[in-house]
């Protein structure tokens, strides 16, 4: 198959959908790979590295879209890319159709085959192409939190791990899923006193078993949250209710209970945030203060560490990309239910229920495609 990797052109997107290692794998299976010039630059990969791995470099995005049967990307195509997409072309990338009506209509019109990373789903209902980004964001939340706890950055002025004779900081993690687990591990590793809260007792039991001694688990409810935020220096918001807006677990009135200079990192901001006072921020201007509490609410945290994020993402996407290239989308999706769940818009038909419902479009059962 002929595979094309365009350079991401969305603002501040430095990830790339395929590494030189991925090119080598695809070439080993007999596929041809075209990479747009400088596509890997933001993630630290040179055109030479891609060439040595067996890819051909094309100077323009038009040439990449023009020649490829399958386009592998990171972010959804933006408006300037719409006219480049060909009928029957397979696009394997994050789409998030339910949050963009223009994108949905554009892909219907282009009659492409749109396989969305975010809806590829395993039989245990986990989302294997979202997990790596939650891992990155969860770990990064502690790094960012530690930074903004420094006095010159507006924080309380406390070191997460303390030193001999001085107590460490208290870190409260709301949600014990992927983000919360990674945050707790990082904070614990730095020597902080960590508490994870979740509403799932089986999850708390699991975390209690695997976490080091400086991590406690506590049932998440309003009473316990009110009590614990009073002693917290850093609070991480990592809750998720699938398909719904995140619940406001820390309300505005609760901020008065906290110490001035407390830092709150709302990782769940992409689902509306789990603090009432959260509003999305960017890497250029990541924080703001409400009632003396520092809020960090960057909606695309992994974008700040493109090297790590690219490798984490491509480790997860490559096996699927290989299947698609080896078998073609129709056979691969017919044989593999995980991939089939990724199909959202195919040849002008919406085959993912959530997308059809979001934009009041006719829905076609994916089974009708096979
Ligand atoms: N900002 C970013 O850059 C970024 C990056 C990656 C992920 N995220 C977001 O982070 C959030 C968490 O993702 P995840 O992969 O960890 O999800 P997950 O499903 O693995 O974990 C969510 C956890 O929240 C728990 N939960 C639900 N309601 C709760 C409540 N009231 N109190 C405490 N816990 C509760 C669930 O039981 C679950 O364990 C998602 O909204 C995700 O989209 C943001």
Automatic annotation (TrEMBL):
Substrate binds at residues 15, 75. The keyword Chloroplast does not apply. NAD(+) binds at residues 134, 198, 203, 220, 239-240, 267-270, 298-301. It catalyses: L-alanine + NAD(+) + H2O = pyruvate + NH4(+) + NADH + H(+). Residues 149-297 form the Alanine dehydrogenase/pyridine nucleotide transhydrogenase NAD(H)-binding domain. InterPro entries: Ala_DH, Ala_DH/PNT_CS2, AlaDH/PNT_CS1, AlaDH/PNT_N, AlaDH/PNT_NAD(H)-bd, NAD(P)-bd_dom_sf. Keywords: NAD, Nucleotide-binding, Oxidoreductase. One of its GO terms (cellular component) is plasma membrane. Pfam families: AlaDh_PNT_C, AlaDh_PNT_N. It comes from the Bacteria. Residues 4-137 form the Alanine dehydrogenase/pyridine nucleotide transhydrogenase N-terminal domain. It is an enzyme of class 1 (oxidoreductase). PANTHER family: ALANINE DEHYDROGENASE. Belongs to the AlaDH/PNT family. This is Alanine dehydrogenase.
């Amino acid at each position: 198959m002929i595979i094309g990797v365009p350079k991401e052109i969305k603002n501040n997107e430095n990830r790339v959908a395929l590494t030189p290692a991925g090119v080598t794998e695809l070439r080993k299976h007999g596929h041809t790979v075209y990479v747009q010039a400088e596509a890997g630059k933001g993630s630290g990969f040179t055109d030479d590295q891609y060439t040595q791995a067996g890819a051909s470099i094309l100077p323009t995005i038009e040439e990449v879209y023009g020649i490829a049967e399958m386009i592998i990307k990171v972010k959804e195509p933006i408006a300037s890319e719409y006219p480049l997409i060909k009928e029957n072309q397979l696009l394997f990338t994050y789409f998030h159709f339910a949050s963009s009506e223009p994108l949905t209509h554009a892909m219907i019109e282009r009659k492409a085959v749109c396989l969305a990373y975010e809806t590829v789903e395993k039989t245990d209902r986990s989302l294997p192409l979202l997990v790596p980004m939650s891992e990155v964001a969860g770990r990064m939340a502690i790094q960012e939190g530690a930074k903004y706890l420094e006095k010159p950055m507006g924080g309380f002025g406390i070191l997460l791990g303390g030193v001999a004779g001085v107590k460490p900081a208290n870190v409260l993690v709301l949600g014990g899923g992927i983000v919360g687990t990674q945050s707790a591990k990082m904070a614990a590793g730095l020597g902080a006193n960590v508490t994870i809260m979740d509403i799932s007792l089986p999850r708390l039991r699991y975390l209690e078993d695997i976490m080091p001694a400086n991590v406690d688990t506590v049932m998440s409810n309003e009473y316990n949250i009110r009590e614990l935020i009073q002693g917290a220096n850093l609070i991480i918001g990592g809750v998720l209710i699938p398909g719904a807006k995140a619940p406001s677990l820390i309300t505005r009135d609760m901020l008065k209970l906290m110490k001035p200079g407390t830092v709150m990192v709302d990782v769940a901001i992409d689902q509306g945030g789990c603090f009432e006072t959260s509003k999305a921020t960017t890497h250029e201007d990541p924080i703001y203060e409400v009632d003396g509490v520092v809020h960090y609410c960057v909606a695309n945290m992994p974008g700040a560490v493109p090297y790590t994020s690219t490798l984490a993402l491509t480790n997860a996407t490559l096996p699927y990309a290989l299947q698609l290239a080896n078998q073609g989308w129709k056979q691969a999706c017919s044989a593999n239910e995980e991939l089939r769940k990724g199909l959202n818009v195919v040849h002008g038909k919406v085959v993912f229920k959530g997308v059809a419902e979001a934009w009041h479009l006719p829905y076609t059962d994916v089974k009708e495609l096979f």
